[in-house]
Write a structure and sequence with these properties.
The structure is a single chain. With 75 residues, this protein is an alpha+beta fold. It has one domain. Helices cover 37% and strands 32% of the residues. It has a three-stranded antiparallel sheet with strand order 1-2-3.
């Protein structure tokens, strides 16, 4: 992990296996610190090609979309 990723809030990333035996799946966990809220998020993905900052950015955008849909449903 490089300094630019650390500045962007990425704390660490881990390669993990989910499941057991033949049905297991290789995955990656990206640990991200959100500076504005002070919260730490862990994003699980099976995409090992994207940079950790890209994974964190996409999940954050997805969350913003989910919150938009929630507001639309409530009104």
């Amino acid at each position: 992990m490089n300094d630019a990723q650390r500045v962007a809030g990425v704390i660490a990333q881990q390669l993990v296996r989910l499941g057991a035996g033949k049905r297991s799946l290789a995955a990656r966990v990206v640990h991200y610190h959100h500076k504005e809220s002070g919260r730490i998020f862990r994003f699980v993905t099976n995409n090992t090609k994207w940079s950790p900052t890209t994974v964190a950015r996409i999940y954050r955008q997805r969350w913003d979309i989910e919150m938009l849909f929630k507001r639309i449903k409530q009104n």
